[in-house]
Amino acid sequence: MSFSEPPAAADPMLPADMFAGQVALITGGGSGTGLAMAEAFARCGATVALVGRDIERLTQVSERLGRQGLSAVPIALDVREPERVCDGFERVEQTVGPITILANNAGANFPLLAERISPNAWRAVTRIALDGTFFCCQEFFRRLDGRPGAIVNNLASYVWLGLPGDAHAAAAKAGQMNLTLTLAAEWGRLGVRVNGLVIGNYPHAGIPGYDPDKAGPRAISIPARRPLRAQEIGRAAAFLCSPYARHITGTNLVIDGGDWLRRDVLKPVFVSPCDRENLWMG
Predict the structure, then answer these.
(1) Which PANTHER family does the annotation name (predicted)?
(2) Active site includes 210?
């Protein structure tokens, strides 16, 4: 037995016009968690700006959302470069209007033992996840110019315990979590809320070694006994940025099916990363 499945992605959770007239910018919005967030915001009436480096993919996704009656525009943007962040935000505002919601989802990741991470490999991950998140938050805040706004940052549950074979991303995500708390404290006086969405086990095609036939069985080790669904990620992000969460800021909402509760003596045998066939799935 497992926790029941969530409502389908197209089923409403919040009012369909809740974000009407608002623009939500989602970094890395062309796939995975970013796309889930984009769909949730769009289904609540927002125009979503899908930004990233792969403009072809973003265009395809925007067209697909458009066929569903959802409003989306693709914008090329490299979050690693402050000047390009500024240019990208400017293009979004010229195209669809002022941005009031920011979802920092862009990231890069690949399994590698810490002693084998080169400086370039380290920067390839941390510049997107940590630097990019900060540059986007800063540009978003500057353009609000005193108006209220909401930010949600895509975090991961391994910020607390680390993840063997993922030192670069784990360190970057931990930095993002601290940044979330710091910005919430600094900007709360101006009505800018900053929250994090701590995502647990989410099997998807972007994970090295992902096998859809094994995703379900592997998830039975968590209390919920099923994998996290994309629409649950999107809806949680939409709620945190909605008027229903106006007194919530500086919060890191864990959405992992209770996986963090498994901190007891009945753990599986630890397999050294050096002895694993797949670094992330030991």
Answers:
(1) PEROXISOMAL 2,4-DIENOYL-COA REDUCTASE, PEROXISOMAL 2,4-DIENOYL-COA REDUCTASE [(3E)-ENOYL-COA-PRODUCING]
(2) no
Exposed, middle or buried by CB within 10 Å (0-12, 13-18, 19+), for 50? Answer: buried
Which tens digits make up the pLDDT trace of 219-259?
667 777 788 888 899 999 999 999 999 999 999 999 988 88
Whether the Cβ atoms of residue 239 and residue 245 lie closer than 8 Å to each other:
yes
pTM over 0.85: yes
> Which tens digit of pLDDT belongs to each residue from 51-102?
999 999 999 999 999 999 999 999 999 999 999 999 999 999 999 999 999 9
Domains, in order of start, for the chain: 23-202+211-275 (3.40.50.720)
Q: Under DSSP, is residue 273 helix (H, G, I), strand (E, B) or coil?
A: helix
Cβ 177 vs Cβ 236: under 8 Å = no
Of residues 158, 202, 210, 244, which has the active-site annotation? 158
